[in-house]
Write a structure and sequence with these properties.
Blueprint (H helix, E strand, L loop, with lengths): L2 E5 L3 H12 L3 E5 L3 H8 L10 H11 L2 E4 L2 H6 L3 E4 L14 H14 L6 E5 L7 H14 L7 E5 L9 H6 L4 E5 L6 H6 L7 E4 L1 H32 L3 H10 L21 H14 L5 H4 L1 H18 L4 E5 L14 H11 L3 E5 L10 H10 L3 H4 L4 H7 L2 E4 L17 E3 L18 E2 L1
Helix pairs in contact: 1-3, 5-6, 9-10, 13-14
Bound molecules: nicotinamide-adenine-dinucleotide.
Nicotinamide-adenine-dinucleotide binds next to helix 1 and helix 5.
Length: 438
């Protein structure tokens, strides 16, 4: 059993407080809203949420749940704070952290000069970086104590949906705690002992961005489905049935497929077919902003790779893979062809290793495409990987042909793997994500 203060008794905070109390913890809800505090103490839910009124009444009657406006009292009587205050958009769309800062300062000031051990858990949705560079230093300064020992700070994003919030609390997709040190998460995981879900400890940046990724993905899915519905109407097709059938493909559509950060897509189908849909929509004066931005987004990603390669300032470049994926010699709209063409055009000395490609075997549209983009391809291709590594000051790994090669001749900083996130040389990743299952 833990003694927990839940700051903010709105939709997330009240559900969290009531469920934690139901699971055996001693909980104090803390809010600046007098009416919410009074409602809770009378055994009433301050927000409308199915099942919450009954749960709050039961827990208040059992003496495990109460509320207060007195921050200091709540902190002194507890060992963990779950902060679930609002993080609304400010006038420019950025995250407003005013309420969070107020709570953090109060916690720090109350802990200052005491020997109380305390874990602060940010449950509110917060962009990566704010906890680490703003809230954590603020807490340390207010408490006049370094973090990581007696006082710890973690994040623990919430994935519940209003209207089925208790059900989602009890059966989340996973429980994720972001921690600066592994043991910081221990006390937080104890709170979820009764929850049957995968428990994951990761770094605070990953945990924070995961929450935004989930919401952005949900928003993207809804927007995509609506655009497909609009297209279906324009074509005279049944949009509901199209999407119902699309979702039945759990191999490629509703699955992990295509959901890892890597390189731009290409090939003879994806670009062509997205182009056809957007062209048709233009002819029909139908606005489909999501689908219309897919090819520009893909091009921006390719441009990012070109910038990263050029920033290395070397001329002799070895590319591993030219076809859009390994196992095919289809070069049509391969992003690696565009990459090679651009680098050659900018004066780089390129060699390419792709055992699947033989210039003499290229035919039809494939040959026409390469004649137009890389007419001197034969002079760029090398037959053996050793010829590539001997030539290259910088190796650029494109498709999975790279997996079978011995690249130990090159230091890791002289290799760019386009199949990973393309951010490293633009901005150094703040932490290396370590994921541990608990
Ligand atoms: N609502 C959802 O479905 C949902 C789901 C997941 C995550 N979230 C995130 O959880 C956070 C809270 O969302 P919500 O919908 O519960 O917000 P809410 O507005 O319903 O509740 C916030 C509560 O915080 C209180 N508060 C404000 N300043 C305070 C302070 N200084 N000290 C103590 N209490 C204070 C408010 O009075 C209010 O009761 C947000 O970051 C949100 O993005 C919300």
């Amino acid at each position: 059993m833990k003694r927990v203060a839940v700051f903010g008794t709105g939709y997330v905070g009240c559900v969290t407080a009531a469920c934690l109390s139901r699971d055996g913890h001693q909980v104090i809800g803390v809010d600046i809203d007098t009416e919410k505090v009074a409602a809770l103490n009378e055994g009433k839910s301050p927000v409308a949420e199915p099942g919450l009124e009954e749960l709050v009444a039961e827990q208040v009657a059992a003496g495990r749940l109460r509320a207060t406006e007195d921050f200091e009292l709540a902190i002194r009587e507890t060992e963990i704070a779950m902060i679930a205050v609002g993080t609304p958009s400010d006038h420019a769309g950025a995250v407003s952290t005013a309420a969070l800062e107020k709570v953090i300062c109060s916690i720090g000031q109350t802990l200052r000069g005491s020997d109380q051990s305390y874990t602060v858990v940010i449950r509110s949705t917060l962009l990566p970086g704010i906890l680490e560079t703003s809230l954590a230093p603020m807490l340390a300064e207010a408490a006049d104590s370094a973090l990581g020992g007696r006082i710890r700070i973690c994040n623990n994003p919430e994935f519940l949906r209003e209207s089925i919030a208790i059900r989602d609390y009890d059966a989340p997709p996973f429980v994720v705690v972001g921690a600066m040190a592994g043991t910081d998460a221990d006390d937080v995981m104890v709170l979820y002992g009764a929850i049957d879900a995968e428990k994951i400890v990761t770094d605070t940046y990953t945990a924070a961005l995961l929450k935004y990724g989930c919401n952005a993905y949900h928003a993207l899915k809804i927007g995509f489905a609506n655009e497909m519905g609009a297209l279906a109407k324009a074509f005279g097709a049944d949009g509901q049935q199209v999407m119902e059938l699309l979702c039945r493909d759990t191999k490629l559509n509703v699955s992990k497929a295509y959901l890892r950060p890597g390189f731009s897509f290409g090939g003879s189908c994806l670009p062509k077919d997205v182009r056809a849909l957007t062209r048709y929509a233009e002819e029909q004066a139908l606005k489909i902003s999501i689908l219309r931005s897919v090819l520009p987004s893909n091009q921006e990603h390719l441009d990012r790779a070109i910038r990263i390669i050029e920033d290395r300032g070397v001329r002799k470049i070895g590319m591993v893979g030219l076809s859009f994926k390994s196992g095919t010699d289809d070069l049509r709209e391969s992003p690696f062809v565009t990459l090679a063409e651009t680098l050659v055009g900018r004066g780089c000395d390129i060699k390419i290793y792709d055992p699947g490609i033989s210039v003499s075997r290229l035919k039809g549209g494939n040959l026409a495409y390469i004649d137009q983009r890389l007419p001197h391809l034969a002079a760029l291709l090398v037959e053996k990987p050793e010829d590539l590594t001997a030539h290259a000051e910088l190796l650029v790994l494109g498709n999975d042909i790279a997996d079978g090669l011995d690249l130990t001749s090159h230091r890791s900083e002289d290799i760019i793997d386009l199949r990973c996130c393309l951010v490293v040389s633009e901005q150094e990743s703040p932490t290396s994500a370590t994921i541990a299952e608990v």
